[in-house]
Amino acid sequence: MARILIVEDNAQNLKLASVLLRADGHDVVGAADAMEAEGALGQALPDLILMDLGLPGKDGYAFTRELRHREATVGIPILAVTSFAMKGDRERALEAGCSDYLTKPIDRLDLLERVHRLLGLTAPTAVGAERNAP
Ligand code: MN
Question: Which stretches does DSSP call E strand in 3-126?
Fold first, then answer.
């Protein structure tokens, strides 16, 4: 179980990501923008940050760059989540300091595979597969 901060201004996307990550056993904190995220970071540092790149006010690229310049947050993996499916967005996200990149709509296994890899956990199994394991 990890502490995960989700920075996402779209309530439905925030809810979906929160549900999926909580179901995977994680402690999830949501923030609708960079300012709210700063408040959450002041409370406790997360093990991973899900970063929507399109945020009102300070966008996810600028916020990621800031976090990469802070001693407290420089080492926290940041998974960019965005509906920007345009060519070059992945590169832009990685350049800003994101660790990996995920496009919306969020796919459960795609999300968990990336989250687990960034947290250094084993890959997720398909729904129900755990029950059939020896
Ligand atoms: Mn957004």
Answer: 3-7, 27-31, 48-52, 78-82, 100-103
User: What separation in Å is there between the alpha carbon of 24 and the centre of ligand 1?
Assistant: 23
Q: For residue 80, what are the β-bridge partners? A: 51, 101
pLDDT score of 125 = 54
At 84 the pLDDT is 62
* Residue pair 115/21 in contact by the 8 Å Cβ criterion: yes
Distance of alpha carbon 64 from alpha carbon 128, whole angstroms: 35
Residue 101's nearest CA partner among 109, 111, 32, 37 is 111
- How far away, in angstroms, is 101 Cα from ligand 1 center? 14
Question: 75 is written with which tokens?
Answer: 């080492």
Instruction: Kindly state the average pLDDT of the residues 85-98.
Output: 85
CA of 134 to the centre of ligand 1 (A): 42
Interhelix angle 60-68/34-43, nearest 10 degrees: 30
